[in-house]
Amino acid sequence: MLTIDAVTQLDRSSNRRADAVWLAEQRRREASRFIVLIDLKPVIAPPAALLTLTPARVSELGLGGETPIFLGVDDRGSAWFALLLDGARAQSQSPTLPEQAVELRQLATEGVLAREALSLAGQARALGEWHRVNRCCSACGGMTAAKDGGWRRQCWSCGRETFPRTDPVVIMLPVCGDRCLMARGPHFPPETFSALAGFLEPGEDIERAVQREVLEEVGLTVGTVTYQESQPWPFPHSLMIGCRAEVADERLTIDPAEIAEAYWTTRAEGQLMLDGTHPLGRRAPGHHAIARELLVAFVEERPLRSFAR
Amino acid sequence: MLTIDAVTQLDRSSNRRADAVWLAEQRRREASRFIVLIDLKPVIAPPAALLTLTPARVSELGLGGETPIFLGVDDRGSAWFALLLDGARAQSQSPTLPEQAVELRQLATEGVLAREALSLAGQARALGEWHRVNRCCSACGGMTAAKDGGWRRQCWSCGRETFPRTDPVVIMLPVCGDRCLMARGPHFPPETFSALAGFLEPGEDIERAVQREVLEEVGLTVGTVTYQESQPWPFPHSLMIGCRAEVADERLTIDPAEIAEAYWTTRAEGQLMLDGTHPLGRRAPGHHAIARELLVAFVEERPLRSFAR
Asked: ipTM value of the model?
């Protein structure tokens, strides 16, 4: 059987989404593949792959009536879809499937899935959550229907269209000289430290959002902001924009609603946290998290160059 | 009279938004100021400022019953609000106001307003548009009410909360050796050329969104993607993420639905477009647009360094 791990990055083929005839053909084609999410939890083929179903298998399981989300086309020309089931429906049709459904966050943390499989499950989860809370039109309250292979919803009543939402989040490591600031939120697991983060607001650019969040959460005035890298984060549908934030003064004024504990960390100590050998048991974020990459770049002194305006 | 041009960047004071008593006090304080948008168009105090009203003036105009959006606090401690009126209401209360309302896009293009005033009007417009199309709960169809000075809406029926939406858009200048690609969309003004752009989709990071959009629109395979800068774009509520996209091959395959015309441009020709002296009348984007900054950085050979993963 094909597994998702054999698949390279999908071509999303967005120009195909509005072609209902083509999509219907693909849903029936023998070469097409379906991944399954139950209550937004990906169904796994143990030990380390996403379960992938053929159209025939989808019918056998009695799931043929569901309209799946179109994910894209692989390099062999096979179309990939995601079936989004609720737990009760899955239980009644195919009782073994729910037992294999695992929270995406757990899959990410444990690092069992290949990167592409995780990315595909994340894409499906983000879209699934968006569909779940967009059954109605936010303008008129009418019912909406999914269109374009799940990439658009339209109101039956007023005709308004809505598209999948992605919320930009800035996540940043404050750096002062040769130390960086690691912090814990009130709901973090014990001894786990990370970067600071917050939603970008309307009317802000990335740099201003970084400056505002750092000032609000720990009272530091940020000078230069440098973009490092970004990451989709499907909980529920965010884009994490990872930055370094240079500050000139180390004195903290903590907002206790946001931050339980924050402290300045040397490169050597950051390395111990990354290695899992910190004497006080302090831990860096897991391998799936962009916050870890921000710390790694700092510890390894990788060059980050800001754009000179 | 205070004008908005005297105001430096506002402190958004997001921790104050949930304090209804404090907000009500600020709405009455003599030092507080209100800007006005009618059908999302900012009202101008000619020739070059946003109209700003005191609480007393708001009452005189019969607009005291409206609940304004809280924008933030200036460096003198004065709170700033935005009154969002529909045209019919404004016309009946104060017939001169609608005559002074100007489309924000026009204000941006003409460069009449100071940068901070434009930013504030943009913030108010983005929030206003979000409120306009979020009267109902997208999950259950119930009615929603504005909370937190206009920064949250909550459903009366199911209690679901929703927050202002910002859509990340990648905008990028493809560069091949010493030439960059300038393009026109089918609906652009004549002879106006810009960078490529498109919405980032769920499950993508910035780099992949750039690669996908460039491939879809002009058929080029992108190598290195370098972040340059970002800009809020309140039409209706986007975050423009400006990048350079390095390509190795100049051969184009245009998607006519997206692109009417695209051509490779030298630095010298780009400079003529920026200067408005191009012999064929080709024009660069206006001074308000991040696409212009992408072209300027290319023409001036400003250093852009990508982060080495």
From this structure: 0.91
The one-letter code for the residue type at A122 is G
CB nearest to A201's CB, from B164, B202, B228: B164
Please state, in angstroms and rounded to a whole number, the distance separating the CA atoms of residues B224 and B227.
10
B220 contacts B247 by C-beta, under 8 angstroms:
yes
Q: How far is B35 from chain A (nearest CA, A)?
A: 15
For residue A6, name the pLDDT band (cuts at 50, 70, 90).
very low
pLDDT tens profile B121-151: 999 999 999 999 999 999 999 999 999 999 9
Residue B183 in contact with residue B262, Cβ under 8 Å? yes
Shortest Cα–Cα distance, B104 to chain A (Å)? 13
Does the beta-carbon distance from B139 to A119 stay under 8 Å? Answer: no
Enclosing H/E stretch for A68 = none
Q: Which one has a higher pLDDT value, B221 or A118? A: B221
At B285, the amino acid letter reads: P
Q: By the CB < 8 Å criterion, does A179 face chain B?
A: no
User: Which of B226, B223, B220 lies closest to B252, judged by CA?
Assistant: B220
Among candidate residues A178, A167, A193, the one with its CA nearest the CA of residue A280: A193
Work out whether the CA dihedral A71, A75, A78, A83 comes out positive or negative: negative
Per-residue pLDDT averaged across B21-46, rounded? Answer: 95
CA B38 from centroid of its chain's CA atoms: 17
Contacts 24+ apart (CB under 8 A), A18-26: A18/A147, A18/A148, A23/A70, A23/A149, A26/A70, A26/A79, A26/A81
Backbone torsions φ then ψ of A48, nearest 5 degrees: -145, 40
Element (H, E) at B4: none
List C-alpha distances in Å: A167 to A130, A202, A239, A280, B238: 12, 11, 6, 35, 10
Amino acid identity, position B127: L
pTM to 2 decimal places: 0.92
Find tokens 């709405």 and name the residue. B27
Give percent of chain B above pLDDT 70.
95
* Dihedral, A42, A43, A49, A53 alpha carbons, nearest 10: -110
Query: What values do phi and psi take at A171, rounded to 5?
Result: -130, 125
* DSSP state letters, B203-268: T--HHHHHHHHHHHHH-PPEEEEEEEEEEEETTTTEEEEEEEEEES-------TTT-SEEEEEEHH
Place of tokens 């000032």: A215
B136, amino acid identity = C
Size (chain A), residues: 309
Report helix, strand or coil for A12: coil
- CB-CB neighbors (< 8 A) of A255 in chain B: 15
Q: CA distances (Å), A101 to each of A51, A87, A107, B1, B125, in order? A: 10, 10, 10, 63, 43
Q: Computed from CA positions of residues A56, A59, A65, A67, in that sequence, does the dihedral angle turn out positive or negative?
A: negative
